[in-house]
Write a structure and sequence with these properties.
Order of helices and strands of chain B: EHEEEHEEHH
Structural class of chain A: mainly alpha
Largest sheet of chain B: 3 strands, antiparallel
Strand content of chain B: 15-25%
Number of strands of chain B: 6
Number of domains of chain B: 2
Order of helices and strands of chain A: HEHHEEH
Strand content of chain A: 5-15%
Oligomer: heterodimer
Structural class of chain B: alpha+beta
Distance between the termini of chain A: 44 Å
Number of helices of chain B: 4
Largest interface: A-B, 19 and 22 residues
Shape of chain B: globular
CATH architecture of chain A: Orthogonal Bundle
Helix content of chain A: 55-70%
Strand order of the largest sheet of chain B: 1-3-2
CATH superfamily of chain A: Winged helix-like DNA-binding domain superfamily/Winged helix DNA-binding domain
Largest sheet of chain A: 3 strands, antiparallel
Number of strands of chain A: 3
Shape of chain A: elongated
Radius of gyration of chain A: 17 Å
Radius of gyration of chain B: 19 Å
CATH class of chain A: Mainly Alpha
Helix content of chain B: 40-55%
Number of domains of chain A: 1
CATH topology of chain A: Arc Repressor Mutant, subunit A
Strand order of the largest sheet of chain A: 1-3-2
Distance between the termini of chain B: 46 Å
Chain lengths: ~110, ~170
């Protein structure tokens, strides 16, 4: 089933960060690095998103690290699928924007 | 330098003002280290060493563990209000970065005010007709709490309007 609901920026970057296993602070840092500091995930927002994404089956909790006891998450196949759909949706948005704005630039 | 204790009153609907004040204290070299009803204890710190945040939530061990995992320190609780701080060198520390979780937070505050306000209203009515004649105290409390509920609702409406056109 094709799920065409737009993801929030926060969810999009959380999913992208979890392409490789990450713990909470790692997700925050990766998101900030990927977006050049533009997107900052706040603690409560990230916690809520991690819970609902786990419930939805898009990410999963890895067995806890016995030393640091930090919880690590990773993208599931369903999550990867959702992320790919979102990338093509965003591509469409960006291409249409460029087509129209880029075109008007040439008309000048 | 020793710790310093200040006594200050904030209305529930002014929690953002309270948070601003706590961060101004941290900016001027005083980090919140203990908290009680209207009592704030600060310890000396390097100016701007900490970001301080407060959030209303019921006790939730896994949430607090998560915050500690990302480097935040639990300071204490006053009723449902929980105080956290994190070293500024770890970057900006915020609890909310999206409109939905801000709205959910305001809903939690609103629900608490409605429950306490409703209880006062009920007790007030009952006491008005009892020989004790203390009903007006509860009715006054109820009025104040309902005013608070209105303020919280106003904040929520502003956020919902914003949500209509942005994430």
């Amino acid at each position: 089933m094709h799920d065409s609901i737009a993801l929030t920026e926060a969810v999009y970057y959380i999913l992208l960060s979890l392409y490789t296993p990450q713990h909470g602070y790692g997700i925050m840092q990766r998101t900030e690095a990927l977006s050049n500091g533009r997107v900052r995930l706040a603690a409560g927002t990230l916690y809520g998103a991690l819970s609902s994404l786990t419930e939805k089956g898009w990410i999963q909790l890895l067995p806890a690290d016995p030393v640091s006891r930090k919880k690590e998450y990773i993208l599931t196949n369903a999550g990867l699928e959702a992320l790919k759909n979102e990338v093509s949706r965003l591509k469409e948005l960006a291409e249409n924007g460029e087509k129209i704005l880029g075109g008007s630039e040439d008309d000048k | 330098m020793t710790n310093k204790t200040l006594y200050k009153w904030f209305w529930v609907w002014d929690f953002e003002k309270e948070e601003r004040w706590l961060n101004e204290m941290a900016q001027s070299g005083w980090a919140l280290c203990k908290v009680g009803p209207c009592i704030y204890t600060f310890e000396p710190c390097e100016p701007g060493d900490y970001f301080v945040r407060l959030e209303m939530h019921s006790p939730d061990a896994s949430y607090t563990a998560f915050l500690e995992e990302i480097g935040a320190e639990y300071i204490g609780r006053v009723f449902q209000w929980t105080y956290y701080r994190r070293k500024a060198e770890m970057g900006q520390f915020d609890i909310f970065s999206d409109i939905d979780s801000r709205i959910a937070h305001l809903d939690r505050i609103g629900r608490a005010l409605a429950i306490i306000g409703g209880a006062n209203l009920l007790i007030g009515f009952v006491n008005t007709f009892s020989p004790a004649h203390f009903g007006w105290v509860n009715l006054l409390c109820a009025t104040l709490l309902m005013y608070g509920l209105g303020r919280i609702h106003g904040k929520k409406e502003a956020l919902e309007k914003e949500k209509a056109w942005r994430e």
